[in-house]
């Protein structure tokens, strides 16, 4: 249930098992009249405009691997990292994010020393951080804490306010004072436990990667250690992956445009789930993959499993709005070079971030023209979704004028609203997941997938979708021991 990237990945995995002989019937149910969830691409006058996500992180391999498996390998493109330059609004002016800053850890000296984004005492704190030692077992660091408090302990408050807060608002639509370090940035949480200093741990990991790449080069291998671009995408738009997945659902039934309204659990062990649609029709299933937002799963499950519903309902979501503005020739020259900018909350603007698409993925914009993708909403500003298209474009243009002194008339605009679409892994998320896992033990054949659990990016959703499909197959296999013995496939 749910035809976003998680549900499609699950459906694709199940449809493939069916093609290979597994004796199952597969149905994909999507409430909207199109597949893809928040992934949607528009092509207008030579511009490729993403309404939701525009790319995936290259270091997480699942999305690129799925693209290759679907025959889209030759469409995969990396971000234009030579031109990578990100700015942060600071006292009303754009300042460059220091080079060598790996998310929240500084790894190069001079850009840190020279950045106007941090006061002198933060630079001293960053230097002292190199000497932090691992926490002693008896004085263990907290099990979980907010990203803000974690960063504050390592690098001071200015690093939180000026850099980490806008980065997380831009990427997760989230509030770093609520988000969990353990669930949002587990790598850094682990680093602290092992090494104490994040800077030392990051430099060490970099050295190991370079050594591995050097060894691979000596043996003439092209390996995963070769430098990856930061982001990857599909040349003609991310909806290509949606279209390809939909094509590969052959043999599966796809039902669009009717929302699932409720779900009844099997009355007896080995019985079937009853799915009810809003139009009154029903269907039975031995296993169900719920690949819709956790708040929607909670709504469906409330009458039949209130404890699980409560846990799922505790995962908060934020809303997002993207406003894409396309410009004709001459606009590029009036804009800073690079990937775009982020806006900290203290600057008191509604714009969270703006991507210069012509800088990040230049093949998506006709030669010489410019495309700006502006982000609004997030945990701090859910009300923005109520703005009309006219109000939203006026707001964005006024802020662009104030920040960039950029007041050209766009050729056209496109607006996309995504209410309650971005799961927020707030402090305690790991325990919440544990409790959900425990409740799920009582419901064999009910599997969860999507951005609410172990990663919000596209690759994470592909991973959870495919894993949920495998669990569903396994549940059916257990219910039908004879057929699995017969086919060897389930
Ligand atoms: C604006 C924006 C920008 C982003 N940028 C990036 C990015 O650049 N890179 C990246 O990796 N990630 C990005 N993300 C995150 C990522 O895109 C999402 O986390 C991911 O696509 C979510 O996929 P999903 O399948 O879990 O959920 P969704 O895409 O939300 O799909 C869930 C589906 O369930 C359906 N549904 C809900 N209720 C019902 C019901 N009752 N009955 C039937 N169907 C139902 C919905 O209609 C929807 O189609 C971005 C997200 C947003 C919103």
N-to-C span: 21 Å
Largest sheet strand order: 7-6-17-18-19-16-20
**CATH class designation of the largest domain:** Alpha Beta
What small ligands are held by the chains? flavin-adenine dinucleotide
CATH architectural name of the largest domain: 3-Layer(bba) Sandwich
Structural class: alpha+beta
Characterize the largest beta sheet: strand count, sense, and whether it forms a barrel. Answer: 7 strands, mixed
> Number of helix segments?
17
Q: Kindly state the percentage of residues in helix.
A: 25-40%
**How much of the residues is beta strand, in percent?**
15-25%
Reported by name, the CATH topology of the largest domain is: FAD/NAD(P)-binding domain
Total discrete domains: 3
Computed over alpha carbons, the radius of gyration is 24 Å
CATH superfamily placement of the largest domain: FAD/NAD(P)-binding domain
Could you explain how this protein is built, in words?
The structure is a single chain. With 490 residues, this protein is α+β, with helices and mostly antiparallel strands. It folds into three domains: 5-38 and 238-315 and 426-487, FAD/NAD(P)-binding domain (3-Layer(bba) Sandwich); 41-82 and 317-423, Alpha-Beta Complex (Polyamine Oxidase, Chain A, domain 2); 101-218, protoporphyrinogen ix oxidase, domain 3, CATH 1.10.3110. Helices cover 38% and strands 20% of the residues. The protein has 17 helices and 21 strands. It has helices at residues 5-19, 62-69, 109-114, 120-129, 147-155, 157-172, 181-184, 186-195, 198-218, 239-247, 294-301, 306-313, 357-360, 389-404, 429-440, 458-479, 481-487; strands at 27-30, 41-44, 47-50, 56-57, 76-78, 86-90, 93-96, 101-102, 105-106, 231-234, 253-256, 260-264, 273-277, 282-285, 288-290, 317-327, 340-342, 353-356, 370-377, 412-423, 446-448. The strands form seven sheets. Strands 7-6-17-18-19-16-20 form a seven-stranded mixed sheet. Strand 2 and strand 3 (47-50) form a beta hairpin. Helix 2 crosses helix 16 (458-479). The longest helix is centred in the C-terminal third of the chain and has 22 residues, at 458-479. Residues 484-489 have low confidence and may be disordered.
């Amino acid at each position: 249930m749910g035809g976003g990237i998680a549900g499609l990945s699950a459906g694709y995995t199940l449809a493939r098992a069916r093609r290979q002989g597994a004796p199952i019937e597969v149905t994909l149910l999507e409430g909207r009249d199109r597949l893809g969830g928040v992934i949607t691409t528009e092509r207008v006058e030579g511009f490729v405009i993403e309404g939701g996500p525009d790319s995936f992180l290259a270091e997480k391999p699942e999305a690129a691997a799925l693209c290759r498996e679907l025959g889209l390998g030759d469409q995969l493109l990396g971000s234009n990292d030579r031109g990578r330059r990100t700015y942060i609004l600071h006292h009303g002016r754009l300042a460059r994010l220091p080079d060598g800053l790996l998310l929240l850890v500084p790894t190069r000296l001079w850009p840190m020393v020279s950045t106007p984004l941090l006061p002198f005492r933060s630079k001293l704190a960053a230097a002292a951080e190199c000497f932090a030692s691992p926490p002693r077992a008896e004085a263990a660091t907290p099990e979980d804490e907010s990203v803000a408090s974690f960063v504050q302990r390592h690098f001071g408050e200015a690093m939180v306010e000026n850099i980490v807060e806008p980065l997380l608002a831009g990427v997760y639509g989230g509030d770093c004072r609520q988000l969990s370090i353990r669930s949002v940035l587990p790598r850094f949480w682990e680093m602290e436990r092992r090494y104490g200093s994040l800077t030392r741990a990051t430099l060490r990991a970099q050295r190991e990667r370079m050594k591995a790449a050097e060894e691979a080069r000596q043996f003439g291998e092209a390996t995963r250690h070769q430098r990856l671009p930061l982001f990857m995408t599909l040349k003609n738009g991310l909806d290509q992956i949606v279209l390809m997945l939909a094509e590969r659902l052959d043999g599966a039934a796809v039902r669009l445009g009717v929302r699932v309204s409720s779900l009844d659990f099997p009355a007896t062990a080995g019985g079937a789930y009853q799915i009810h649609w809003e139009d009154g029709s029903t269907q039975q299933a031995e296993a169900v993959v719920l690949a819709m937002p956790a708040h929607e799963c909670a709504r469906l499950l409330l009458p039949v499993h209130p404890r699980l519903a409560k846990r799922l309902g505790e995962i908060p979501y934020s809303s997002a709005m993207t406003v894409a503005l396309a410009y004709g020739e001459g606009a590029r020259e009036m804009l800073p070079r690079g990937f775009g900018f982020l806006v900290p909350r203290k600057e008191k603007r509604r714009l969270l971030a703006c991507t210069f698409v012509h800088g990040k993925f230049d093949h998506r914009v006709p030669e010489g023209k410019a495309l700006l993708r502006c982000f609004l909403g997030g945990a701090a500003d859910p009300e923005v979704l109520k703005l009309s298209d006219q109000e939203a474009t006026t707001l964005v243009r006024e802020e662009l004028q104030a920040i960039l002194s950029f007041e050209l008339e766009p050729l056209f605009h496109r607006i996309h609203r995504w209410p309650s679409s971005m799961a927020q892994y707030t402090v305690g998320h790991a325990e919440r997941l544990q409790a959900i896992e425990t409740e799920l033990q009582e419901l064999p054949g009910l599997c969860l997938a999507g951005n609410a659990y172990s990663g919000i990016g596209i690759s994470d959703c592909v991973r959870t979708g495919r894993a949920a499909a495998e669990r569903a197959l396994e549940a059916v296999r257990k219910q039908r021991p004879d057929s699995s013995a017969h086919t060897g496939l389930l």
